[in-house]
Amino acid sequence: MKKTLLSLCLLMASFAAFAQLPTVGFKGGVNFATLHATVDGVSGSGNSGSLTTFNVGAFVDFKFGNVSLQPALNFTGKGGSSSVSFDGEANSGGKVKLYYLQVPVNVVYHVPAVVGDFYLGAGPYLGMGVSGKAKDNSGNSEDIKFGSGQDEIKRTDAV
Fold it and tell me: What is the CA radius of gyration of the chain?
């Protein structure tokens, strides 16, 4: 019993000795978003054109040697645009803008370079839709409804 307790204490002390303090960071950037839609009961699917939007967020980096665990909280824009013309005459279309809160958890490998580090990382995320708006080229707009019903967009987004 004493040996087990002593071994456990030594193990915890070694983790504390090699542990580094987590760092906090902020990030932001540009998104080129598109929508992909399928309709139940109908074969086929559709894609939208690109919509330029943004993302901002904060992350915490827990470093363990050359590997880091980076959970984050991001506010990101998604959506798409479309335009339709009939016989080259009538033009219609619009934009769908969606905003999500995302919680990614990335595992990042730090490769030492001549100056600084080179990073390779990947991981899953869970996103929740917070707001959205659809607007046509005539200026008409409508708030997006999130849910699982007809004419609603899924609230959750996960990879």
Answer: 23
